[in-house]
Amino acid sequence: MIYETIEELMNKAQAAEGKTFGEIDTTGRIKNLRAKGTLGNIIEESYFGYEINSVSKPDFENLGVELKVTPFKRNKNGTYSAKERLVLNIIDYMKEFKLTFETSSFMNKAAKMLIMLYQYEPDIPINDYRIFKAFLNEFSEEDLAVMRRDWETIVTKIRNGEAHLISEADTMYLSACTKGVNKSSIRKQPFSTVAAKQRAFSLKASYMTGIMRKYLTPGHMEALSKPGELRIKTLEEILEERFKPHYGKRVDVLCKEIGMVYNPGNKSMIPHLMTKLLGVSKNDIDQIEEFSKANIKFKTVRREPDGKIREHMSFTHIDFDTLLEEEWEESDLYNIFSEQKYLFLVFRFTEKYKKGIKRIPYFEGIKLWNMPLETIERELYALWMETRKIVSKGVELVPNGNRVMNDLPGSTFNNVCHVRSKAQDGDDKVLLPDGQSITRQGYWLDKGFIQGILDDQ
């Protein structure tokens, strides 16, 4: 069926709200459905009445509208988030660099999208999944400005013969995700003989979360940037401008200036302080629109008077139940570094460390960082593999005084990352696959590696 106007198309789409996929399906496809991703096929065939295709043009070509059916989930705290990134089109490395952002394959496909949301609920049959919301998405000028820079970042790597080094964490909203049935899905690139993984333009899950919350929970998000500001400045430049007036001030002074109680024992104090310094009312950075869309997380770094860092930096706990079953590119460790950016909040002490002496640092500066793909595929992968190997054969636990040592890869492993305890106390333990009990473990970045990032080494 041909829809002559946007209004006609949207009336049809919004009439599906509240209907289940089982009610919509007229082809019997859902009876044999295994992949939730093909739910979109049911909407295409049964509801809108057009044949499934893989052409690069928008689905409703006469209207320039692409159809996307995508899931969201309800979190434990009651908020909504996208279940996955929104994958668009395969990147042709041999052609994309010849285009402009306006003529890019991404803009050709996604400039105007009819998005139909359904709620992912793992405990109910797929045919009972229900269309929750249908809306027409057209990117704001601010978002397009960020995506233009993202596209240029990706294309610059293609032009530099570095398509094989593209990482999702390189960019803010628009990413180039791996796309293929397996690791052998590779493509030629124009300026290097090195084969590159097949990738597709996609909107990050974090960006989609921001879009979904706009429609599902209006007013939940707060913008950091002023109207039009992102068109002329990068997010990093905006962050630097907001924070710079506060550099050199002690943390207790900053707290006093904004009316906060200085309480170093409160882990949420620094994040709350930083959001106030940014001039937003939200305490949760995930409620700051640009942070949520770009998947940026705060990480606090404390430096000694000589600039050295005393402590390693912790990240996620290790889930030993899934470690031996997961694939590398589906693992928690891979995902937190391949998709996220980190805003390092750097503080420095003026006095040397001395046991029993309370020190108050001053705010030194910020650094927006993501892990390079080379590091992810080399040192980070080596850590994951070595940890799996040891857990598979059985972790060796050796009592040493009041402590129990283990042979998991420690801080001397590769000068980038290691495994160590991330337990609240000695009683915070988990079971290993072989039945042994071990204090809760986590993945950490070495303090020397963090030091190098801050010193641009």
From TrEMBL:
The keyword Cell wall biogenesis/degradation does not apply. InterPro entries: DNA_rep_MutH/RE_typeII_Sau3AI, DNA_rep_MutH/T2_RE_sf, Restrct_endonuc-II-like. Residues 50-150 form the DNA mismatch repair MutH/Type II restriction enzyme Sau3AI domain. SUPFAM superfamilies: Restriction endonuclease-like. Coiled coil: none annotated. Pfam families: MutH (PF02976). The keyword Hydrolase applies. GO terms for molecular function: endonuclease activity. Keywords: Endonuclease, Hydrolase, Nuclease. This is DNA mismatch repair endonuclease MutH.
